[in-house]
Amino acid sequence: MTPVTILGTGMALPAREVSAAEVEQLASLPAGWVMRHSGVRRRFFAEHETASSLGAKAALQALQRAGLELGQVDCLVAACGTYEQALPCRASLMHRQLGLSPVVPAFDVDSTCLSFATALDLLSLAVAAGRYQHVLIVSADLASPGLNWRDPESCTLFGDGAAAAVIGSGPSGRILACAMETHSQASALCEIRGGGSRIHPRHYTPDREGEFLFAMDGPALFKLVAQTLPSFFDRLLQQAGVSRQQVLVIPHQASQPSLEKLRRRLALPPERFFNVVADYGNLIAASLPAALHLAVESGQLKRGDLVVLLGTSAGVSLGGMVLEF
Amino acid sequence: MTPVTILGTGMALPAREVSAAEVEQLASLPAGWVMRHSGVRRRFFAEHETASSLGAKAALQALQRAGLELGQVDCLVAACGTYEQALPCRASLMHRQLGLSPVVPAFDVDSTCLSFATALDLLSLAVAAGRYQHVLIVSADLASPGLNWRDPESCTLFGDGAAAAVIGSGPSGRILACAMETHSQASALCEIRGGGSRIHPRHYTPDREGEFLFAMDGPALFKLVAQTLPSFFDRLLQQAGVSRQQVLVIPHQASQPSLEKLRRRLALPPERFFNVVADYGNLIAASLPAALHLAVESGQLKRGDLVVLLGTSAGVSLGGMVLEF
User: Is residue A192 a contact partner of residue A148, using CB atoms and an 8 Å limit?
Assistant: First the structure.
């Protein structure tokens, strides 16, 4: 049990809204394909925005909702799944965008789509230990530059965006349980092989493009998740000492069909399973904090409520956290 | 004050040793240039090794030194400055190399060259809180794929390698003080602009190669560090309640000339300032834990000794930690 309060949340999206019909054009798909297969009717693609500029915007909203000034932040954590540039780390770029004082340290925590949950777990322990007072956790991902338009299964799922939360010790709030598993034998099911030291961008040629783009084996991934996530979820609830009837589950917004199948496997009614993927697509690491923000803004999540952040990530990891909000 | 024991350390290098003379050939430099300017007489470049294979090797040595089995590890953290591939996170790839059980979570902590210190800080808090028993922190970086052979100032400094530490609660050991500052207004002084969403590898062409390679403004970086690190170091010692006469300083092994200038500015005698950069080059994030490992193996750092891990990173960040080893 770690005492921590999510003092405020925020979200930022690029200006350009992209419809299902436009994605069908980009990917040379027949009309209706996107809604039938990915269920994402709308997503946003960055044009002039950068991940760090969107992250900074989301961070400022989170501070505003928390009633805090930028000067009250004493740690900045970037919790992303994509990179803005190969060096330095993403938190430094956000720190610069926000114009934070040098006394505020900035670093990244990365577990791909679960980065926000991992950062929330670690930094809650740091807040509880008195190491920091107010930590900004910012997830900002641009999926669109790395999409493979020849792979309809994946390119129709994602959107760009950012979300943030500011945490601290507060009058209420605690983490009741937290867990993560890494099924690394399946790490090649969801990857971008190029872009690092294994296949450096130097080796890029147009005929090798696919190696530098997102690739996944959707059916194999879903099979692994279907086999492992339900019992993981049960153990998490048990560890927290709560029942599925008491919680709102906020899942990583992976894709409409997989979310719907997952909801049934977890035996949750629609009103206890937060699903907004149709409006934003899969925002990678920003997906979980964006959904958290939207649940708070819509009034579906209130102080004192029990909430489960639950998700899967490339790697392949399962992660979950039961919070008293 | 966080109780934590560094139970064991390890290090791994690629098989291929590269002399100063060979670097002079690669970079078309006159004989003697490398020793005069970078002072790195030897470094290792990966051929068949990957960052994760070197990281796994270093991790196994750390476990062996700690007298622990792989099955006793309950968390794996990759603390690197470079990427092996764009997705998934580096810890998943190391987890797979090590063949760890799915119950062991794997994630990254990244503050570029300071990643190891940041991870040690955060995970020590997690160990102290009882969240984990034995955490493997592994730093593995391949610098060589991203070096710019037309930039002698930077390409002569780096080497490839990995280092690891396993931490837990133990009979002794504690962190007496820990601090980090991020001077993000200087983030462009040391960067690789391409490779992420800002300049995706898709946009690579041979004439844009420089944007995908390491670039730094050495003199401006050194000026910033010279202005800020001495007082940062003094505050750190003060926070820990120790004097410079009591500690062994293990600095990030950036480059021979900058280390020597730094030692003088910190007013430390050579025997209290650990410097092995001539033998390995700058190993990026692996530099700090590799130096820690070499200090332990050589007998210069013993149980109960006071040690300061101190460094700078792209971003630009300063970081330091006073440990009772």
Answer: no
